[in-house]
Specification:
Blueprint: H1 5-8, H2 13-30, H3 36-51, H4 59-81, H5 89-97, H6 102-130, H7 142-147, H8 154-181, H9 185-201, H10 210-213, H11 220-231, H12 241-249, E1 254-256, E2 259-260, H13 261-270, H14 274-285, H15 294-320
Helix pairs in contact: 2-6, 3-4, 3-6, 4-6, 4-8, 4-9, 4-11, 6-8, 6-15, 8-11, 8-15, 11-15
Amino acid sequence: MRESENDLKHIGRFRQLIIYLNKLFRLFVLQNDWKVLPMSAVIAGLVSLAVGRGLFRTMEGTFQGTFALTCVCIWNGFFNSIQSICRERAVIKREHRAGMHITSYVGAQLIYQALLCAAQCAITIFVLGVTGVAYPQETVFNSVLDQAGSQAGTGFTVELFITLFLVTYAADLMALMISAIVHSEMAAMTVMPFMLIIQLVFSGFIALPQSISDATDLMISKWGVQSLCVISDYNELPAVMIWNRMSSGGDRIDIGGGVTIKDVMNVIDEQGMKDTVIQKLSETNQRADFEATFENLFTAWIYIIVLGAVFAVITVVFLEFIDRDKR
């Protein structure tokens, strides 16, 4: 039941937060906002079927798979909140003039969106498991979890959930900020694809000119990919793409005297040196920022948290001035 305008003037911030949180949960049911949950399951399933075979097993498969998972998280986060504020902008303006505390309203949004993101991440991890994605046994926090009696693989699930949640929630807060800035649902949906493209282009997945490469530090996607590669122990995985490609097409490449690359590879394999060659290829692809260390993981998580906090603050600032908005 919505409080009257006269009542709002005499309600504290905490009680207002509860009131608006209850309102958001009602909208979750009445406006079918729950549809984002099955949608996240479908998207996770499609991604798993596309890149799940090599995910957490090879360098190439893990890099592609972590990028895809990051895209899933950002898409889920964007879709959760991109219209949540702008669709009721007139109501927010009226209730703010009647005594609504913006911090209470935004706080309710933050709690609601956090729970929604957590549910989506749990669904994503469940779908990955159902579709047969094999999780690594070693984790960054493995020693701590071992002392607590953790089962093998459980620690990775925890790290994966935290990482997916942070990326999804940060993207959600960015969309919430956009929803607070724009004046209509149409404008919000127009801006969202551009923001998504920017996140993907500056994720670090695509090689960029040095002059603009530093911009990746401001992207959720860059730190999402790094976090996932760190917990996947990317640097210790085999790089098999080059070997497989040469193996499939090497019989068509003559290196002289009727000897093909395929012949050379057969000799290497027969002498038991295949693993050594793959290991050397893997070493050339190793990256210091993907090393499975607490420092790398903590750094990436902190960047994501700071970005999310900045988006939340900007949301509050713009809504505090909503009374001056003549749109």
